[in-house]
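Q: What structure does this chain adopt?
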Amino acid sequence: MGSESRHEEPAAAAPQAVASPMGRYGPQVSITRFDTAPRELEWQLPLDGELYRLVPGPDRPDYSLLVLERPLHFYPAPGFDQDRVEPDQRVEDRKGRPMVRVHALLVCARFVGQQLGPGMRDLAVNIAYVIDNSLARDAVVDFAKIEVAAVGFLSEGHHAAPGTDIPQGAAEPDAVTEADAHAGTADDVVADAARVLRDGVAAHRGRPVERLTATLVVGPDFRLAGLSGNADGEAPVPTPETFEKLNAVLARLGAVASVEAGAGAHESPTGDGKSDPGEPASRRFTVRVEGDTVVHEPAPGVTTA
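A:
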């Protein structure tokens, strides 16, 4: 687990004069984002916990046991041996699919020359699920008691879920940057918004969403003004922070309209290049999502591409 890379990168660190925030077991830490991770793990961010103790492994001496503030769940890969998991960690989602409940992680610095310590911020770490809690009592890491999970970024302290600290009206930088990288039309914007909504509903429920149909009403300020629909037979209710992520994506409709019509701020909401103050300055999109496939249709009289 600890020998994936020998490349060194600097990790930002805060001044170490300030005492580390402590919890019941040890220093408080948080994994706030990932480099690579399964989708169900992304939905459960942030992963807050406490560093319990150092545990040497057969390949390196500096693994750290991270006790989670709240359990997380993952879908085992095909061929995964369920007998490796303690019985009370074997659970099912609402569709009866097997999942594993995890109460602790094993982490280590990803790059040679770095290590966990006071003041760390966005330290790249290798992450593994602890699937046998007896590991907490072992003198040496037993790799049979863990399952490699992800590569993420660890910081000192506990952190709010992504998006919760974004002021009203502001866009989330990461969401805009990632979407802008491949977008050029309103079709792209609506497809991105549909996926953000699907993932937000899944995060709220704590399980994947297979099929989503939703109607998005976008106001004159290119922010979400209305939402209705169906997600696997239930209302499409996302996490609170999803709304700002949606607004960050939908804000791109303004730039798309200006580029495509060449009319700047005076572009008609109907997309015909004419200013029409009698028309409502809003747009309505119906989207259907299955897997990564998105199909959407504009309301009559509204052009989306």
